[in-house]
Design goal:
Number of domains: 1
CATH topology: Nuclear Transport Factor 2, Chain: A
Oligomer: single chain
Helix content: 25-40%
Strand order of the largest sheet: 2-1-6-5-4-3
Structural class: alpha+beta
Radius of gyration: 15 Å
CATH architecture: Roll
């Protein structure tokens, strides 16, 4: 019984950590915070962009530095699934395009717990 309780407590702690990382990830996109991403993306990170192109970590960091042009980005309907040292985050976003028109999208981020730290290993983004 103790092992099950310990596992459940660890999963809750991981979920809280991932919730904070998710919030920070969204903030870092809007703020063009390359340093945050450099500290939280795995070296083997890959991202599928909204146009279907695939970029590695360095390509993604370059994109972040340029900025998305989106403002007022909010994550909604966040679902965090923790599977031991692996987690998947699904969410919907709302935001404003540079023109001021509202938009929305979805994203999936995949996280891996490596040496006790959660690192994002992959992401996919859609925008409408």
């Amino acid at each position: 019984m103790q092992d099950h309780m310990t596992t459940a407590l660890q999963a809750d702690a991981d979920r809280q950590t991932l919730d904070g990382l998710n919030t920070s990830y969204v903030r870092a996109v809007e703020a063009c915070d390359v340093k945050w991403f450099a500290n939280h993306l795995a070296l083997d990170f890959m991202n599928t962009n909204t146009d279907g192109s695939l970029v590695d970590r360095n390509g993604f960091l370059a994109q972040v530095a340029k900025g998305s042009g989106l403002t007022e980005i909010e994550a909604r309907d966040v679902i965090i699934r923790v599977l031991d040292d692996f987690a998947i985050i699904h969410a919907r976003t709302v935001f404003k395009f540079p023109t001021g028109i509202s938009g929305w999208g979805r994203y999936t981020d995949i996280w891996s717990k490596r040496d006790g730290n959660w690192l994002c290993i992959a992401a996919q983004v859609t925008r409408c």
